[in-house]
């Protein structure tokens, strides 16, 4: 199977995956993201306990790439610390912007590494990064609260 087909199949699979496409009752943090250029709209909710992301979910509408990318993110970051979640968000964003290209550094992104080539499709970059940028903003708020309370 060629890489392009694998990429397409994975995006379609994650686009259909509704495991984490839901609301969380009493989330620690909620953040809204919107991409005006194509109309993608996403809400990220996370429950954080003792500095660990114990639940992460999203709702919203958008193209297959934005939905699949956000599904991959939610799957990857469940159970991670806020600090690790932020680091992985930034690694993904650096990958999509073409700043980090070494596969050995990107392996920890798991399924999300398949979106690497979107860096060569400028019109799709905002689609792929919407959920990650939105979560990054949410986790930065949580990180600030943890520091202020700690």
UniProtKB/TrEMBL annotation:
What GO molecular function annotation could you give as one example from this UniProt entry? iron-sulfur cluster binding
Q: Taking every annotated instance into account, which residue ranges of this chain make up the domain NIF system FeS cluster assembly NifU N-terminal?
A: 7-88
Pfam families reported for this sequence: NifU_N (PF01592)
Which superkingdom? Bacteria
InterPro entries assigned: NIF_FeS_clus_asmbl_NifU_N
GO terms classed as biological process:
iron-sulfur cluster assembly
Which NCBIfam families does this chain map to?
SUF_scaf_2
Name of the protein in its database record: NifU family SUF system FeS assembly protein
């Amino acid at each position: 199977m060629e890489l392009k087909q694998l990429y397409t199949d994975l995006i379609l699979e994650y686009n259909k995956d509704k495991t984490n496409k839901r609301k969380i009752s009493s989330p620690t943090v909620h953040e809204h993201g919107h991409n005006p250029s194509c109309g993608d709209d996403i809400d990220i909710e996370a429950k954080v306990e003792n500095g660990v992301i114990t639940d992460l979910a999203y709702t919203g509408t958008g193209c297959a790439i934005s939905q699949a990318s956000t599904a991959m993110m939610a799957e990857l970051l469940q159970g991670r610390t806020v600090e690790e979640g932020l680091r992985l968000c930034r690694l993904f964003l650096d990958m999509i912007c073409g700043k980090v290209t070494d596969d050995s550094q990107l392996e920890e992104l798991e399924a999300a590494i398949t979106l690497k080539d979107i860096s060569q499709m400028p019109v799709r970059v905002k689609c792929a990064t919407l959920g990650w940028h939105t979560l990054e903003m949410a986790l930065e708020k949580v990180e600030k609260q943890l520091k202020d309370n700690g």
